[in-house]
User: Fold this.
Amino acid sequence: MKQFLTVLAMLMLTFALHAQTKMIIRDTDGNITTYALQQGGIIEFDEGGIEAVSLGLPSGTLWGSCNVGALHPEDSGAFFAWGELNDKPAYSLSQYKLYDHVHGTYPYEETLENIAASAYDSATSQLGHPWKIPTRAQVDELLKKCSWAWGTTGGMAGYTVTGPNGSTIFLPAAGKRVNEQTQDKGTAGYFWASALADRSDNEAFTLEISSTKHAIDYEFRYLGLPIRPVK
Assistant:
């Protein structure tokens, strides 16, 4: 989003200097891209954004067209520790807000058994109601009722998921954030579900994808994973 806002600012300058023959865009990371302009031409920017997609699932669940914090289906979007509401620079147990660092335990609240649409749901926090993090049952339905085809969209590897009604969503292999690093980008994708794992209190259920896998799995709650929201 910050790059998009910078682009808009540069676009306004371009319109003000309409006699120029090129447009120079400098993003907030200092990267420069130059575009040749044709006088009298039209410049369009695709703002993108999330849409609710009906895949024709028996439950009626609508899946988001992109990850929370993303503008397009192939974008990684934001990364969240499970139950936290914002992304951050680094992901480790020492920085995890839902951990009692004094006693070395995970505080128990009944709400944390399933955080969908709760005060711990970053999808609801970021996008507003009725968007929410998917439940394990909704992820399971997506796996069992849709067809899955591994490929590349917009330069990003991932799965095109086709529902019973022929509509599709794309799930990118965006990787995960461990400490300050992004791991497995382009080869694997991990997406939070709303429920704690049934084997330990330091893990939560995920949807995990790779070229050889699309299944429910587990990850440590403090790691940074994307969220594909549902309605």
About this structure: The two ends are 23 Å apart (CA to CA). The CA atoms of residues 107 and 220 lie 15 Å apart. Residues 2-16 form the longest helix (15 residues). Helices lie at 2-16, 122-127, 136-145.
